[in-house]
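TICKET: design request
STATUS: open
ATTACHED STRUCTURE:
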């Protein structure tokens, strides 16, 4: 159900997952590889198995910000928002 990986405490700081803009918790779980499907994301969030910055989060639509740390089943990932240059033209 949850991707394998070490916890932040066991392996140091969590890996950063680069996203282009604001992202919801449910989508981030998939992008970060913490779950396989949107349905799985919904289940683990509803079950209270997801923490954001150390606090349980049960809202799939919760907006994450750069620097937030998301934990599921002992695996943690940090949100890293990358800057997208404005299009020229």
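STATUS: resolved
RESOLUTION: sequence designed for all positions
ATTACHED SEQUENCE:
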């Amino acid at each position: 159900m949850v991707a394998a990986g070490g916890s932040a405490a066991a392996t140091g700081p969590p890996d950063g997952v680069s996203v282009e803009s604001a992202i919801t918790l449910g989508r981030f779980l998939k992008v970060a590889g913490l779950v396989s499907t949107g349905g799985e994301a919904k289940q683990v969030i509803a079950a209270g198995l997801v923490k954001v910055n150390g606090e349980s989060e049960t809202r799939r639509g919760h907006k994450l910000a750069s620097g937030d740390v998301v934990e599921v089943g002992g695996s943690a990932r940090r949100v890293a928002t990358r800057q997208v240059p404005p299009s020229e033209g």
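CLOSING REMARK: The beta strands are 15-19, 23-24, 50-52, 55-56, 63-64, 69-72, 75-81. Residues 1-10 have pLDDT under 50 and may be disordered.
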